[in-house]
Every structure is written in C-alpha cells, then in structure tokens.
Design brief:
Distance between the termini: 41 Å
Number of domains: 2
Strand content: over 45%
Number of helices: 0
Helix content: under 10%
Protein name: Lipoprotein
Radius of gyration: 20 Å
Structural class: mainly beta
Shape: elongated
Order of helices and strands: EEEEEEEEEEEEEEEEEEEEE
Organism: Shewanella algae
Largest sheet: 11 strands, mixed
C-alpha cells in the first residue's frame, strides 16, 4: 500500500538492520547539509550508553520508506528508507544499510543489497538483477513516499556524544567520530562534569543542559550543536 507523506523528516543514524559496504556517495546534484539530532530546545531522555546528540551529513532527496518487512519466496525487503539517486532515476538506495536480500533456493537469505528499483507512478518495486522476476506489487509492500526528505549516508562523517554514567555528582560522557563507516578511534574522548559546579556540559560546541541524571538514565535539553568548524 502506497502512502504519501508530505512532511520533511530527517533520517537518524540509528540502524534497524546491519550495514552493507558501499562506496556510493551522496548524489552530486543534491544539496548536502549538516544534520543535528535532537533539534535545539528538545527535551530528551536517554539511558546508559545511549547517544545524547549526534551530527552527520545528509542530502535532500525523494524517499521511499518501507514500513514493514516485505517477504516473498525469492526476495526480501527490509523496513528501511531508500533515497532516489537522481530526480529521473528508477534506482533508490539505502546508503550503507542492508535494505534487500536475494534468497537462496532453500528460501534462506542470500545476497544482501541496498538498491530498490521503482518508477514513480508504477505499482512495482523490484530488486536489480532479477530480470523483473523479483518484484512486489504495491499491495504486497507497505511503502511511504516523501517527495522532499533528508537522506543520510552511513558512510559519511558522523560525530556522537553519549552518556556513560553517574557517580555522586560526577557525570561521565564519551565522544566518538565515524568516517566512511569506520570509527575514528584516535578522536575518541571521555570526559566528566561536576553537577555541584553547574548543570551544563559543553564539548566541541555541543552544549547540553542536564535536567535530571541517575546512573541509568539522563534527561537533558540541547542548547547548541557541534561546531561545523570542527569537522
């Protein structure tokens, strides 16, 4: 069932499935922008080890979001978002996340992929290399179309601030960077803040106001995002 969604949403970096290796860059014709999550002023609650704020690069594109697993005897499509590679292309890619599988003769999952073939206005959603035999009709796959979305390539640069716990009045955080799907361990950092000295923490431009914190969860508000000049 095709649904239309006319709101602009930012895709997060939270992976619902594993990653697939791909060298495909963001389409050169798209506007590339920095995306930060959560939005400024948002009050959020996270748990030990969760990401508090993250920043990554993205680009504007049409998207197809598969809302539930679509499974057939020869193919399978995962519930991920596929981005159109150009305004006239029938190729849609999940950019760094496994989005599709070709099945083996025994029905088990075989070759993973990141590409879905679809021409807007048609009722078919196909996998490449299947000569039109590996397709779902629109009544066999639950898809939401968004004409103007923000796509994230999981191979692009990302930076993440996480919460790692509390001891007395001391809160501990970690900072990590990723580039082209690989952790930049040389830039990893762990740092602390003392709640008796204030309730804000700042690192590389990202500033959070701490509203409540235990050793298992933290409630906070994003005051500012990472500095783009630190990229």
């Amino acid at each position: 069932m095709m649904k239309k969604n006319l709101t602009v949403t930012a895709l997060t970096a939270v992976a619902l499935t594993g990653c697939v290796s791909t060298s495909d860059p963001a389409p050169a014709t798209k506007f590339v922008k920095l995306i930060s999550s959560p939005a400024l002023g948002t009050i959020s609650t996270r748990y030990l080890g969760d990401d508090l704020t993250k920043q990554f690069t993205g680009f504007e594109a049409e998207t197809l979001t598969v809302n539930a697993v679509a499974d057939a005897s020869t193919i399978r499509v995962e519930p991920v978002t596929f981005c159109r590679t150009s305004p006239t292309s029938k190729e849609w890619k999940s950019y760094g996340r496994i989005g599709t599988y070709l099945k083996k003769f025994d029905g088990s999952l075989g070759t993973p992929g990141d590409t879905l073939l679809h021409k807007p206005g048609s009722n078919s959603y196909c996998l490449p290399g299947t000569m039109g035999m590996g397709c779902f009709d629109s009544n066999e796959i639950d898809v939401t179309y968004n004409p103007k979305d923000v796509c994230v390539s999981y191979n692009d640069f990302q930076r993440v601030l996480s919460y790692t716990g509390r001891s007395g009045d001391t809160l501990t955080f970690s900072y990590r960077e990723f580039s082209k799907g690989m952790a930049r361990s040389a830039f990893d950092a762990s740092f602390q803040m003392d709640l008796s000295q204030g309730n804000t923490v700042r690192y590389k431009g990202a500033e959070l106001e701490i509203l409540k914190a235990t050793n298992t969860e933290i409630q906070y508000k994003v005051i500012s995002n990472f500095n783009a000049s630190n990229l």
